[in-house]
Design brief:
Blueprint lengths: L7 E4 L3 H11 L3 H4 L2 E4 L3 H11 L2 E2 L2 H5 L3 E4 L3 H12 L7 E4 L6 H7 L5 E6 L8 E8 L3 H11 L3 E5 L5 H9 L1 H18 L4 H19 L5 H7 L6 H11 L2 H18 L1
Parallel strand pairs: 1-2, 1-4, 2-3, 4-5, 5-6, 7-8
Antiparallel strand pairs: 6-7
Helix pairs in contact: 8-13, 9-10
């Protein structure tokens, strides 16, 4: 990391805010040492500090940092962004994880602050997440610094803001949809005779292995065809899923999540 940001405030360390802080600081003591952690719930601060090696702070202290990551619930966002706007000199960058708050709304609540709107998912904690990013008012130097800070979280994808509902559906809701698939795989394996612990361990490995095989941008359909031998086990299972229109239902689920994200 370069000299900027010299301090990184994280306001709101529930599940998503803590995952973001852990992911940014993991394996990078030079980042962890710059983290100031704030939350209205003292126990949440204590837990996040223990995981990140950051320092506890008041909301006012975190709001005065060079980069302020705001990961609070939408109902609390106005007050927190007001504290950021009042918290110090100009030029502090706001990185928002606030659901449903677009750049216009963020800018109205924190006037004069360069903005980074993000849509991460919980896997950023492990460096295997997805982070959609849109910015406003960020100069090239700070944009590069923010990119460097976020890079270890996983796939960082710059998007025009009108695509954020789709990104929210895929990045934010996708793990829940895949978890439902994992449940089905586990139940089927148990029904076929595996013990619950064995099935869960193997399902986790299957999902991780499939993600690794697709990590180079391979076409999922091509992978499915590669493992579908004529009259084999995979093609028998796929035939069942196709009769249930599973692909269409998964696509519809993403579309439904995107519509809901647009409503927030």
């Amino acid at each position: 990391m370069g000299a900027w940001p010299a301090s990184i405030g994280v306001i709101g360390v529930g599940a998503m805010g803590r995952a973001l802080a852990v992911g940014m600081g993991r394996g990078r003591p030079e980042v962890a040492g710059r983290l100031l952690i704030a939350d209205a719930v003292p126990a949440a601060v204590e837990a996040a500090v223990a995981e990140t090696a950051g320092r506890p702070a008041t909301i006012a202290q975190a709001a005065a940092c060079d980069l302020v990551c705001v990961a609070v619930k939408p109902k609390d966002a106005g007050d927190v962004l007001g504290a950021v706007a009042a918290g110090g000199g100009p030029g502090r960058v706001v990185l928002s994880v606030i659901a449903g708050w677009d750049l216009d709304r963020l800018g109205a609540a924190a006037p004069g602050c360069p903005l980074v709107r993000t849509m991460p998912n919980l896997a950023v904690r492990h460096g295997a997440g997805v982070v959609a990013v849109a910015t406003r008012g960020l100069d090239d130097e700070r944009a590069a610094a923010v990119g460097e800070l976020l890079a270890p979280l996983g796939a960082v994808v710059g998007l025009p803001e009108h695509l954020f509902p789709a990104a929210t559906a895929l990045a934010g809701s996708g793990p829940g949809l895949v978890a439902l698939v994992a449940e089905g795989l586990e139940e089927g394996a148990v029904a076929a005779g595996l013990g619950r612990d064995q099935a869960r361990q193997m399902v986790g490995a299957v999902l991780a292995g499939t993600a690794a095989l697709l990590s180079d941008g391979s076409d999922p359909a091509a992978l499915r065809q590669r493992v579908s031998s004529p009259a084999g086990t995979t093609i028998a299972g796929v035939a069942v899923l196709e009769r249930g229109a599973v692909r269409a239902h998964m696509a519809d689920a993403v579309l439904a999540a995107a519509r809901r994200a647009q409503e927030l």
